[in-house]
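Note to self: the last two entries modelled the partners one at a time, which told us nothing about the interface. This time every component goes in together.
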Amino acid sequence: MPHAQPLKDDWERIVRSGAWFASLPAEFAAALLANARLLTLAPGQQLFARGDAPDGIYCVLRGVIRITGITQGGQEALLAMLEAPQWFGEIALFDGAPRTHDAWAEGECELLRIPQPSVLNAIAHYPEGWRELGRLLTQKLRMTFLAVEEITLLPATPRVAARLLTIASGYGTWSDRSKRIIGVSQEQLGLMLSLSRQTVNQSLRELETLGAIQRNRGAIEILDSEKLREARERTA
Amino acid sequence: MPHAQPLKDDWERIVRSGAWFASLPAEFAAALLANARLLTLAPGQQLFARGDAPDGIYCVLRGVIRITGITQGGQEALLAMLEAPQWFGEIALFDGAPRTHDAWAEGECELLRIPQPSVLNAIAHYPEGWRELGRLLTQKLRMTFLAVEEITLLPATPRVAARLLTIASGYGTWSDRSKRIIGVSQEQLGLMLSLSRQTVNQSLRELETLGAIQRNRGAIEILDSEKLREARERTA
DNA sequence: CGCCCTGTGTCGGGTAAATGACACAAGACC
DNA sequence: GGTCTTGTGTCATTTACCCGACACAGGGCG
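The predicted structure of the combined assembly is written out below.
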């Protein structure tokens, strides 16, 4: 099996390709990376669970991390699918409280882990670091607010369109780029949007006949993001 | 500097009654209050709008601030009703980006305003302040995550029950206390939960027959929070 | 007092989406 | 090659909730 290379030299380039990290002052960035550890997860392996004590922050280097919520009635709420070079885990850093969600490896994953003490140490030399990390929080808050509005006041098809655009933009992590191929199953999309798999299917068919996307097995290709944006605005 | 206002002693007591502010180191707390201004809003007056440039952070002293979202199709999404001594407006402080929501005075309100430069100045003397303010962000993120889960995977009645409990706890601001009377109309509850006013009415009637609450005009009284919690768990 | 306005109670029809069921296609694995 | 698993397509049925309508109750105010 052509199992992708562990990124010995490449990982620093990947980390720096993210808008947030690239915006950090050199000294703080270096201090963060000083004690970073590479971490490989097997497919389906759990990184942490809701309620766990905080143990540091992470950056996705390769693969996909699935962030999920409770299953109090057997239901799963899928919050996000994180790809490189997205950072996560910083909520617990600020307040020391338990993790809010579960994190799973979807397929084999490679992560960068910066242990809690190392982050604090980096900040000790650059106190403004709390603000930089806070900017990660505001990004997540803003995205979450948007997600709430999508779910509460958009019908199925615009909702799906909106989410595809969000995922394609890397949840706001990239400024310039935009993914063309979204590797998400209809089932997973449904869990994110609280729609049934069948309804997602229906909506995707609509979007395909509009020429906005093309459906593939386990993935969706964006053909015309402008048409997708139009479909998102259609309240009715 | 706070002058010989008759309200002086009063508002400081109110501010300090909040768990977050009370946990601040004395020097930082004092620096924040040093340039605070009292601000009175007329009923229905708008404090800021989505898209506005950031102008500081606020603390509710008296009255209720309504935080609302877009009306892209004429619909309004009600995010929260803030009461004393809740702080808000710190998102834009971190990233300098425009405000995410509209803020309105529900009835006459009194606020404490700390202008952006004053906050930055306070932090200049106490860099750890970014972390303290970041803890405000994590509080909001955690509450928002809970709200998402409520809305996506709870049916109407448990959803109403969950929200009543959330509001009663001051959105997590108080550790000990819990409101007994919730001054919210059924219409407003519906906007928060994305339920129609009629459905909210129905759910409240259910909760009342359970003996959990009592309905009053424009307000709801919690009689038995344990029964409310039970009703929240009922997935079916 | 009568008037208006806001909040509430309640009904019945309409509908978007959930649910359950079943068949099919593409890989993965043996 | 066959068998399993996962993802998809597409019915018909059911249902929770929306929406419009209307009536009533309280409260402020002329």
